Amino acid sequence: xxxxxxxxxxxxxxxxxxxxxxxxxxxxxxxxxxxxxxxxxxxxxxxxxxxxxxxxxxxxxxxxxxxxxxxxxxxxxxxxxxxxxxxxxxxxxxxxxxxxxxxxxxxxxxxxxxxxxxxxxxxxxxxxxxxxxxxxxxxxxxxxxxxxxxxxxxxxxxxxxxxxxxxxxxxxxxxxxxxxxxxxxxxxxxxxxxxxxxxxxxxxxxxxxxxxxxxxxxxxxxxxxxxxxxxxxxxxxxxxxxxxxxxxxxxxxxxxxxxxxxxxxxxxxxxxxxxxxxxxxxxxxxxxxxxxxxxxxxxxxxxxxxxxxxxxxxxxxxxxxxxxxxxxxxxxxxxxxxxxxxxxxxxxxxxxxxxxxxxxxxxxxxxxxxxxxxxxxxxxxxxxxxxxxxxxxxxxxxxxxxxxxxxxxxxxxxxxxxxxxxxxxxxxxxxxxxxxxxxxxxxxxxxxxxxxxxxxxxxxxxxxxxxxxxxxxxxxxxxxxxxxxxxxxxxxxxxxxxxxxxxxxxxxxxxxxxxxxxxxxxxxxxxxxxxxxxxxxxxxxxxxxxxxxxxxxxxxxxxxxxxxxxxxxxxxxxxxxxxxxxxxx
Length: 585
What we know:
This protein has helices spanning 3-17, 79-87, 100-108, 547-574, and strands at 120-123, 134-152, 155-174, 185-202, 207-211, 215-220, 226-246, 249-250, 255-256, 260-265, 268-281, 288-294, 297-306, 311-316, 320-323, 326-332, 338-342, 347-351, 357-363, 383-393, 408-419, 429-434, 440-444, 446-451, 454-464, 467-476, 487-490, 493-496, 502-508, 514-520, 534-539. By secondary structure, the protein is mainly β. Strands 2, 3, 4, 5, 6, 7, 10, 11, 16 and 19 form a ten-stranded mixed β-sheet that branches. A five-stranded mixed β-sheet has the order 20-21-13-12-24, with no helix packed on it. A four-stranded antiparallel β-sheet has the order 15-14-22-23, with no helix packed on it. The protein is rod-shaped, with a radius of gyration of 43 Å. The model is unreliable at 1-17 and 21-37 (pLDDT under 50).
């Protein structure tokens, strides 16, 4: 199987799974690397994640260099194996935010196995808190979901929906002081009880949810704006401290010759461990749009759509979808590949049993587009006239992410589209999909009227040796009313229309007698008064002299040449025609 056939097979597989391949130099077909790679968890697929999708969730894996195309032969035993080999060759982005990341995280967090009272188990990247007795305490956020980390320029921003959940693990260990079993006063220590009393999710303003224990799924509702989501775990330990005091102790022989008096106290300690994620709540605000029809093209419809958010797609009816700048990839969260177990005496590291994934968004094209299945006989259902918004620099991704991005892109906050096939009623409502999974909203499009047909008439007012004076008149074709907006262009000149719908041009002398003009209206997606373009041609009439001037020329010529003619004839007469020969002898 050739490398190109392998890519075709990959694309066929990924159409079914919602992904796409972006081959990159030295990445799309790669060579085996013998180093150990733990980027892909060994316990997947699971928790409802499709077996062909699972290997694609770990874009930070080590892509193998120059993998042979033989490994993509048709004899691959399963789609899972094919997907695993593909994921090991390149990174695969998705057209839309996928739910598989959340399914995996929600299931995988249940695999966390805390270490007991004397062992703290934590991800390698955890922030640890120590007290006198409570040690290596942590609360670690595994995931905020649904969420998307958007990369633009040098910044990365986590976007969330107003409603969601925070997945958290927490653990600790209790350090028990050493017993003292010699002397007249002896101490014995043990753990009376310990627990994670509470795990609280809060913002800077209020508490959102609470739980207790080592694994927590904390929910939030109705958030807006920028938020610091903080998880706070409160851990309490109560120790039993027994003190035995000898009333008559013989230090020479190291023996109590009296009685032992026993006192018991219960030292208690409380430690708080926290972890935070900054997030921006993405909402569909200031959305809307306007629809127009065209007087001279009754089957055409145009619409201006204001999505009101960063968007991944816009559905127009059931057959047309606009695609935004953004593509999505999934990768494991930093600091979770290794799980650390700590006791008083040792620290061990193993492959982590909890491997959360995070969805990311990157701009892979400069502006939105319309994925087309058009053929020679069928036009695409939508054509993008213009998309506008703020300009941004593209991001630089970590070296292990093999997905190309653009250098600059337009974050389109408005988009104008036109269709020759979709009925006007199709544009009554459109559905906007945001960059965070589950963020979709149907918005209404209002009727903004009809783009009226226009007529341009060019009239030559005057022409002379220095040039030509031309008047342009633009009217509405149906009513004849003057058009007072837009401008007319002739050659390299342009002029705005006056209140009578006219503009006058002084054209320099030209080799051709043909004059062509165009009426250029304001784009219908920006204009208040809607007009279509128009064109007209006229010719410069020949510059013949007037009749009076011709008579004057004749008389002047006659007066100039008549005396000379009479003189010549008189001379010929006097000489009898001997010299000039004008008359016979």
